Amino acid sequence: TILIFYGFLTSLVIIGFLTLVIALKQRLQAINRILFSQYSQDLKSTEKLISVNTRSIVSGELASFSVIDIRKLRKVHDKLHSISLDLTSSYGLVFLAVFCWNFFSCIIVFYMLIFHSRTQNAGKSMLNALFECVFSSSFTAMLAIFCHLTLDEEKTTSIHVQKLLLYSNLSTDTQEELRKLKSQLKCLNMNFSACWFFSVNLPFLATLL
Fold it and tell me: Which of 30, 49, 69, 123 could form a disulfide with 56 if both were Cys (CB 3.0 to 4.6 A apart)?
């Protein structure tokens, strides 16, 4: 009964965390859509300028993406980074408990397979242990996958910023603000961890497997 209650409570907490992580991912996707649309627009304009007059690439400036717009994106990213830190601080112990639960559940399953597979009533006990192992492993996998996908969105943001700096024909002030955004993405990179012991991502999941 205690294990069932613990599993139910842990499930609710993890579902709440995953909801917040998905919300973070969607906000980052919104930032990426803005950057990608600007990059695509500027690249098309640059291609037209190349076909008309090479000198226009140097002198022409596209003012559709302003310093104010990029500063707003920087503020949004800063808030998202703060939220990710709060999530790590609030749910770090939950991560640690889930991974320990998963680890010991798998150990119990292997122990019962080796030493108690031929004893009486072993089938029911093994099924319970196996269900608990699969249940905890599924939550471990979901945590790692969704955290990794969210971090990938932030990496995509850095790629879009780099492409804007490389291909876009923006004003000097706008380019400087983009460089600040690039530096911010590098310094304030998101990370989800279990009480700072290890990061929750796909490489960690691969290590467990």
Answer: 49
Closest Cα partner for 170 from 73, 37, 46, 30?
46
In tens digits, the chain (209 residues) has pLDDT values of 555 666 677 778 888 888 999 999 999 999 998 888 877 765 555 444 444 443 433 333 444 567 888 899 999 999 999 998 988 888 888 778 777 777 777 776 676 666 665 565 656 666 666 776 777 777 788 888 898 999 999 999 999 888 888 876 777 888 888 899 999 998 888 888 877 788 877 887 777 66
Which among 50, 99, 133, 58 is positioned nearest to 208, based on CA atoms? 99
3-state secondary structure of 131: helix
Under 8 Å CB-to-CB from 82, ≥6 apart: which residues?
none
- Cα–Cα distance, 173 to 47 (Å, whole number): 23
φ, ψ of residue 206 in degrees (nearest 5)? -65, -35
Phi and psi at residue 193, in whole multiples of 5°? -140, 160
SS3 76: helix
Q: CB–CB of 194/200 below 8 Å?
A: yes
